[in-house]
Design a protein that fits this description.
There is one protein chain. Helices cover 3% and strands 43% of the residues. It has one helix at residues 3-6; strands at 7-9, 27-32, 35-41, 45-55, 58-65, 84-91, 101-105, 108-114. With 129 residues, it is mostly beta strands. The relative contact order is 0.27. The chain is built from one helix and eight strands. It is elongated, with a radius of gyration of 19 Å. The protein has a four-stranded antiparallel β-sheet with strand order 1-6-5-4. A four-stranded antiparallel β-sheet has the order 2-3-8-7, with no helix packed on it.
Amino acid sequence: MSDSKAVKETRGANPSTVPESALRPRVEVFEDGHGITLIADLPGVGSEHLNVQVDKDTLLIEGKADIAMPEGMQALHAEVRSKLYRRSFALSSELDPDAIAAKLKDGVLTLHIPKRAEVRPRKVEVKVA
């Protein structure tokens, strides 16, 4: 299974449910024999404003950045106006969405999604007769 089959970004989500101003976070996807690791950059997002959920075969990542403005100041120019990140992916049936492990550190979300036990490589013991 290549990572293009393991996890595929979903586009064409219901437009009424996707905020137009949401940013698509940068994501890297890696695969090994045990599953995939997905790393998403979510600068400014804390765990209290992070939502990771799976609905059937769709993985949704949402986060709201908490970018504090120093007291008494206001922005004269802002490159990024939206503080909302949103990205969704279709998961392969070979992955086990019930066993996802998630970690957030310094604005970087790391998800490990293991393969189902029946599709993981396994070593076969050979007995000497």
